[in-house]
Give the backbone structure.
Amino acid sequence: MNVLEEYKRKLRTPEQAVQVIKSGDWIDYTTSLGQPILLDRALAARRDELTDVKIRGNLVFGPLEVAECDPSQEHFIYHSWHCSSYERSLCDRGLCYYIPMVFHLNSDYYKHFLTVNVAMACVTPMDRHGYFNLSTSTGVSGQILRKADIVILEVNENLPKLYGGYDECIHISDVDYVVEGHHDPFPDAPVPKITDVDRKIAENLLPYLVDGMTLQLGIGSLPHALGNLIAESDLKDLGMHTELCSDAYLQLHKAGKLTNRYKTINRGKSVLGVAVGSNELYDWIDENPSVAVYPLSYVNNPEVIGRIDNMVSINSCLEVDLYGQVSSESAGTRQISGTGGQLDFLTGASTSRGGKAFICMSSTFTDRNNMQQSRIVPRFGGDIITSPRSQVYYLATEYGVVNLIGKSTWERAEAIISLAHPMFRDQLVRAAQAQHIWRRSNKR
């Protein structure tokens, strides 16, 4: 095959390529930097010709023209596997619907259950062998593209090229159409503001961290605070095995901490599935032999995670109840983010030799009425449970760290209340008494 001739034969304008989409089709946009900006704009322009076109994506930073152009949702209906702040705003406006899942099974959902009529994704320019790199979207893209009836690739010259374990590339022979066009450089992702509470939680976690550990960090201000603290600490020879690579890992790399020297699998490699952050982060992972991108069916597989000695997982949540149930994705019925890989890493890190799984939160938050509220609640009502009490390991706030493994209901209540802000502890004790999970001999 002459790959250049094949490329030219399949080259279309965005407007030509989206003509294959029919009313009632299921379309996939993959994730984050893989959002097909030109194709999305061209599809939105066909609004009045189409009805009931259903689109899936996740961690898309917007804007999505198909959602913005059709508030009635008569023509386009958008769905997300994991909400970015932009997709959360779409949910608030009734323009996005969340799809519950755990990320390591996402590929299997597509393989066994889902229809993909057309998949559209941004990729790097084709190389001389005829391959396009799926870049920072490798974590979710491979199986989507395999399942699709029609594959349309949008070449984005700004994407970093990532070396991978598998499924990081697609060949021109497996593509139906290719589109080109101008793309603005990626904006830097907003830098989370690190608070004094974030720093205190990070300080509380530091005694549990050891040389040679492998880290999975979630997204937000706490990972950045922890990255700063570790970078300034004496810890050394750390590894990376993470669903989402953020600038927290760049901090560790720049401090000389990220060697992956003692990883029991993928030794010497910083492993990731998706990357979101600054352009400096994208420059670091671009064609870097020490970085390896894999599908999330591998990265988030609890069995794989459990094979990594001293695997430390650090994620955040919104609320915890006195039974140890964790809500990380909704405020009441309002969708905030998604389950993502929290359950995957809770399970995997808990079975790792020397492993630990932490779920962290500030003890309080300020509501819309400027009132301080506790993130530790007696029991959940309308909130969506992300992690069941049977799988929650370590919990942390600015008031300390507790391990819930093997603890009975009264022991859990006592431990969890110790993490609450002092102004809420007495009422939580009273609630625990009413719920019959408080011993009279408990500490007060």
About this structure: The longest helix spans residues 422-434. The chain has a mean pLDDT of 95. The two ends are 75 Å apart (CA to CA).
